[in-house]
Automatic annotation (TrEMBL):
It holds the Pfam family OpgC_C. InterPro entries: UCP028704_OpgC. The keyword NAD does not apply. This is OpgC protein. Keywords: Membrane, Transmembrane, Transmembrane helix.
């Protein structure tokens, strides 16, 4: 049984920093075909910013809600979780409404009704009542608007995770792994509606990443000392290098025919394929046991620009979705550039302008939100405590 620990601690800016980097990567990736998408980390391995984002969400959930849960304030902790769920629900509905409005306006003004066809957008035209019901139920799975519904499910699962974690962290992790395994074996997913099929971000599989992040957050909060294995570190580095060679070299087409289950379970994003999961864990292991965390611990403070993004995750993410839709419309339908991130003079100029304008908007929002926060009663002292890690030998 885990013992209660303090509800208060200095903010760990390293979490905000990596969350900010993930937000930037997601924004760049969500404008199809732009040149700068070539340089996000999905181009150098098997996982991408979405996995990092969910892992950090699990860590943040552990820091925000678990201390109260352990100290006998479980109803308050659950209430705060439900409040956050409500905030996410409103954010999802509003982002979908504005995103669809932008596509609809472009379809009318540019006389391109085909804009309302890709990424399941045609349902809002073909079956508006079903589409509206799906939007309200979070089952309308359309591109760029499907990660927040999964996050809502993660938070709804969080009380159960905390109950198991209170008994033993390994119990919560084991139950999470069992659910991930069962989902992959029996193809369990929440049904999408009105479109057929399941959720792109399958909650039954993505909860494993969230739970791993939760366990990491608890260990960070307790200040656990974790000693690395030099053999495991070398294996993780080797796996990252092999993954980079595989992806950068585009060796997918050179693979011999493999059974369908290998591709689905091994590489599929919806099912958190084992090779994608291994890449995420290897990346985390290498970073955690490198000098990077100690360097960031000394360097970062509340005024760091990327930390500001991570500290205001939801509004920054919300704006990034709206801006990425705008960038998509401008790039492909106003300037008629192809959905192909290859370099040309015209695409480089436009992509630089779109990404640059988007970054100004995202950082501007983060600065504005920080400026609007009350200055009294807030601690912005750099976090110096956390998981103590020994260097790999």
């Amino acid at each position: 049984m885990l013992q209660p620990f303090s509800n208060t601690m200095p903010r760990d800016y390293r979490i905000d920093f990596f969350r900010g980097l993930a937000l930037l990567s997601i924004f760049v990736n969500h404008i199809p075909g732009n040149f700068y998408a070539n340089f996000t980390h999905r181009n150098f391995g098997l996982s991408d910013a979405a996995e990092v984002f969910v892992l950090l969400a699990g860590m943040s959930a552990a820091l925000a809600f678990f201390p109260r849960f352990l100290s006998g304030q479980a109803p308050l902790s659950v209430g705060l979780i439900l409040k956050r769920v409500g905030t996410l629900y409103v954010a999802q509905l509003s982002s979908v409404a504005i995103g669809f409005a932008l596509y609809a306006a472009a379809a009318v003004l540019l006389e391109k009704p085909e804009l309302m066809v890709p990424d399941e957008r045609h349902w809002i035209m073909d079956e508006p009542l079903k589409a509206m019901a799906g939007i309200g139920a979070l089952t309308y799975q359309t591109g760029n608007f499907n990660i927040l519904p999964m996050y809502v499910c993660m938070l709804l699962m969080l009380p159960a995770i905390m109950v198991l974690a209170r008994i033993r962290l390994s119990l919560a992790l084991g139950a999470s792994f069992a659910l991930w395994l069962a989902a992959n074996i029996f193809r369990l997913s929440l049904p999408a509606y009105p479109a057929p099929g399941g959720w792109f971000f399958n909650p039954f599989t993505w909860q494993l990443i969230f739970t791993i992040g939760f366990v990491m957050g608890v260990k960070l909060r307790r200040g656990d000392v974790v000693k690395p294995s030099s053999a495991l570190y070398a294996l993780a580095v080797g796996y990252l290098v092999l993954s980079a060679v595989l992806v950068v070299g585009a060796f997918w087409d050179r693979f011999p025919p493999l059974p369908q289950w290998v591709w689905l379970t091994g590489f599929d994003k919806s099912w958190v394929g084992v090779f994608r999961l291994a890449h995420l864990l290897a990346l985390v292991y290498v970073i955690v046991f490198s000098p990077v965390p100690r360097f960031l611990q000394q360097w970062l403070d509340a005024d760091n620009w990327i930390v500001r993004l991570g500290r205001n995750t939801l509004p920054v993410f919300w704006l990034s979705v709206v801006l990425s839709v705008t960038g998509h419309i401008i790039r492909e339908n106003v300037f008629l550039l192809p959905n192909d991130p290859t370099l040309s003079a015209s695409s480089l100029v436009l992509d630089t302008m779109l990404i640059g304008a988007g970054l100004v908007g995202l950082f501007g929002l983060a600065f504005l939100l920080d400026w609007m926060k009350p200055r009294t009663g807030r601690s912005f002292q750099p976090q110096r405590a956390g998981v103590s890690v020994a260097p790999a030998e």
